[in-house]
Amino acid sequence: MKYHMGFSADVRTAGGPMHVALAFNPSHLEIVNPMVLGSVRARQTRRGDSDRREVLPVLIHGDAALAGQGVNAELFNLSQTRGFSVGGTVHVVINNQIGFTISRQDDARSTHYCTDIIKMINAPVLHVNGDDPEAVVFCARLAFDYRQTFKRDIMIDLICYRRHGHNEADEPAATQPRMYQVIRGLPTTREQYAKRLADAGTISAADAEQRAADYRRRLEAGESVTELSAPLADAFRVDWSPYLNGTLGTEVATGVARDKLARLEAMLTDTTQIRLHPRVAKIYDDRRKMAAGQRPLDWGYAENLAYATLLDAGYGLRLVGQDSARGTFFHRHAVLHDQDTGATTLPL
């Protein structure tokens, strides 16, 4: 599948060029979602986008996968936290109503709507008929405006169906016979909308057919079906070309001058302005001895010192996860807690 490889392009819009990136999804369904939001957060940080208006995440879900995969509950749980917030995501659920071969709601989930999971963060949900393109466009614009205004998640539940089942070679009527009797008697969404426009006198039926034929021809010829702009001159774009031919055996200079380490060690171990817990104070006393060469370096101190050299060289550094500040096994203590005030200090 082509989307497994990802894609990006600079698209021409009325407001100027816009870079669009499709994340590469090596697995099916929802597992890529936290990767997308992580990428968005990194791009916002790199651009200094503290208002979170310049980079917008859009996640496309399946109805059964949205309710069925636990990664989404984890995603929503972390989405409003300080370390992971991206200023809201626009979610679009392609709700084909069958969850592959399940039609009965009580076989698929315990909630009325597949979108009910997002209620955990009090996000609004717009339920819209997929056979009404103008209503869909209205909901898309409303969702974008809501996200940009309130910096919160919003979800569009696009009620539709799969005309051909799981893929073009599938036979969905084998498990959903009555549903597909109805579907096969329906004109396609394009045909319905073309008739609506023709009946209104907006375009002729012949013009509608010609537009569809031209669009299909461009797709089959591998042509772009949207207007592209020249690549953006983006100071924040990462140039990966120096690394394309690297191997695991490529030698990299990682040494740091001793005088630089001494300067960083003095900064890392200065705890004079904070009253530490006795056990943490002992760890920092030992680190000062390590800096003086009186004790061998342990993992926790070596790790903090390595981070300091990266920051000192101008590299960005983000360490996240459970107990990332303290360290799960009481070893890192990159963030210190004053025992009198509860205030925190980050020597790095």
UniProtKB/TrEMBL annotation:
Residues 296-340 form the Transketolase-like pyrimidine-binding domain. InterPro entries: 2oxoglutarate_DH_E1 (IPR011603), DH_E1 (IPR001017), THDP-binding (IPR029061), Transketolase-like_Pyr-bd (IPR005475). The keyword Metal-binding does not apply. GO terms for biological process: tricarboxylic acid cycle. GO terms for molecular function: oxoglutarate dehydrogenase (succinyl-transferring) activity; thiamine pyrophosphate binding. Its cofactor is thiamine diphosphate. The keyword Nucleotide-binding does not apply. GO terms for cellular component: cytosol; oxoglutarate dehydrogenase complex. It holds the Pfam family E1_dh. Keywords: Oxidoreductase, Thiamine pyrophosphate. Residues 26-219 form the Dehydrogenase E1 component domain. This is Alpha-ketoglutarate decarboxylase.
